[in-house]
Amino acid sequence: MTRQSLHSICRWTFNPGKGGFVPADIRPQWGRGFGTPEMIELVAKKIRPRLPDHIVLGIEMHYDAEVDDSNASAVADALVANKLYLAMITPGAHCHFAYGGIASLDPNERKAAGELGTKTVDLAYGKLKKAWHPQKAPAFVIWNGSFGYDLASIGIRQMYQNLKESVAGLCKYEASKGGQLYIAFEPKPNEGHPAMLIPTVASALLFWYKLEKEFGIPLKNKGVNKEFGHSEMIGLDHVADTVEELDSGMCVHMHLNSQGYNDGIILGGPGKYDIDHGARINGMNIAIAGLIQQAGYDRWKGHDMQARAYDNTEQAIDRVIRSVLSWEACEQAARDLDTKALMDALINRQTAKAEDIMRHAVVSAHKAFDKMYSQ
User: Fold this and answer.
1) What is the pLDDT, as a whole number, of residue 178?
2) Where do the H-state alpha helices sit in the chain?
3) Domain containing 9 — which CATH number?
């Protein structure tokens, strides 16, 4: 069977500018009139031709900011016509709800946020269903962005209980529609609140076990959207996170972005805001690539990234291509790694030799990237 590697490109990457302290109109071509169908066409024409043939591309999007009932048919038609797939859909609750969303202590907000989630499920199983990959169903990502607080109080425990009840209800609703989506929590320590209810991978894993125990939610197709950068933001080890996810069988989607602090070139890291660089080549990512290969992970690998505040459209597109190829280079280096020699060195306490093996793997990955990029 021909090897395939599934990568997904995020609709929100293609924006006219971030705004705030940086320009909001640096890429005017991606402003008014540039919708999700147009973004799909761009990926097919400008990105896919610059990637190796074994790469299959999908698209990630928010309901209702980037896809809704009014444009879903056009989005599905564009995906099918361009041989791209719906890789991930997520309720854009953070666009509407600032007081906890489905965890809110305000019952009206909690109800409205819950309805946004069920409408997202309906759209995925409705107008967008024809754009699913025939073997790899999309992920339904529950992003942590609205499930937070900025006031320490005894109410936080009730918010957590509300979150459990709301997600349990969402899972039961999705099961009634077919139970084919992969439902994933995306942990994040902060943003859009100073404190979040599901800040870490361990928090997300515990949350699912609680839902199974308290509400009888089956853990099949449930897990974590592995977001490298969110672990990096608070100085956690995303290699150890990977081990926890795989050990629980709960790595169901991935976001390969980086905060940048661990490659010695771009800045970012613990204590910084969510910078959202693309995937980088480094020893940690090669280790993660090896771990998911050993575990047989063959689902979507997303590129949740932002163009830099000074990028024009050409450079922004190039950054996405570089991110995809950087991860492919890490995977190739992991496949080529002499794992027996590495484990022998570690078993025999020859850690300097083990460092050399990983250092050579990083060099090999950079060479692989250069070769793919030049072609």
Assistant:
1) 97
2) 36-42, 72-81, 107-125, 155-177, 201-215, 228-233, 238-247, 283-295, 313-336, 339-347, 351-374
3) 3.20.20.150
Q: Which residue has the tokens 């918010």?
A: 159
To the nearest 10°, the Cα dihedral for 29, 32, 38, 44? Answer: 30
Query: Quick check: is 367 in a domain?
Result: no
Average pLDDT for residues 228-242, to the nearest whole number? Answer: 91
Measured distance CA(238)–CA(231) in Å, rounded: 6
Amino acid 122 reads D
Tell me the per-residue pLDDT of 50-80, one tens digit each, with 9 for 90 and over: 999 999 999 999 999 999 999 999 999 999 9
- What is the number of domains present in the chain? 1
pLDDT band at 194 (very low <50, low <70, confident <90, very high): very high
Percent of the chain with pLDDT over 90: 90
Where are the extended beta strands (E) located within 40-93? Answer: 55-63, 85-91
**Quick check: 35 and 71 in contact, CB under 8 A?**
yes
Q: Is residue 213 part of a domain?
A: yes
* Domain region containing 208: 5-337
Which burial class, exposed, middle or buried, applies to 373 when counting CB atoms under 10 A from its CB (0-12, 13-18, 19+)?
middle
CA atoms within 13 A on the CB side of 56: 19
Structure tokens at 277: 């660089």
DSSP state of 138: P
Give the bridge partners for 277, in sequence order. Answer: 258
Q: What is the dihedral of CA 193, 195, 201, 202, to 10 degrees?
A: -160
370 belongs to a structural domain: no
Question: What percentage of the chain exceeds 70 in pLDDT?
Answer: 99
In a domain, 349, yes or no: no
* Letter string b/e over residues 192-211, b meaning 16 or more CB atoms within 10 A of that residue's CB: bbeebbbbbbbbbbebbeeb
Report how far residue 126's alpha carbon sits from residue 134's, in angstroms, rounded to the nearest whole number.
16
d(CA 124, CA 191): 26
pLDDT at site 294: 97
